[in-house]
């Protein structure tokens, strides 16, 4: 990591959705480094997909995002069913 790198943590908890159905869920919008960000969760046939989206283009070609995502899936009784780091 260099001195000019910026980091942030976006945490979103989604509850009460069936994994077997095709659904999409939208997280809350958060501002980090003057840019709005939002996370999306998609489920289909037992699979979970995540998408982190910057909602405003910076207007510069000299930047990029290196994202590290952790996903945890818990059952109704609170037991961890799956995790992905």
Automatic annotation (TrEMBL):
Superkingdom assignment: Eukaryota
Residues covered by the MATH domain: 19-81
The protein's name: MATH domain-containing protein
Originating organism: Caenorhabditis latens
């Amino acid at each position: 990591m260099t001195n000019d790198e910026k980091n942030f943590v976006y945490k979103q908890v989604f509850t009460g959705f069936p994994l077997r159905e095709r659904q999409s869920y939208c997280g809350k919008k958060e501002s980090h480094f003057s840019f709005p960000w939002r996370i999306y969760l998609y489920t289909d046939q037992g699979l979970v997909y995540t998408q982190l989206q910057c909602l405003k283009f910076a207007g510069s070609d000299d930047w990029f995002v290196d994202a590290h995502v952790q996903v945890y899936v818990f059952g109704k009784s609170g037991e961890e069913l799956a995790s992905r780091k």
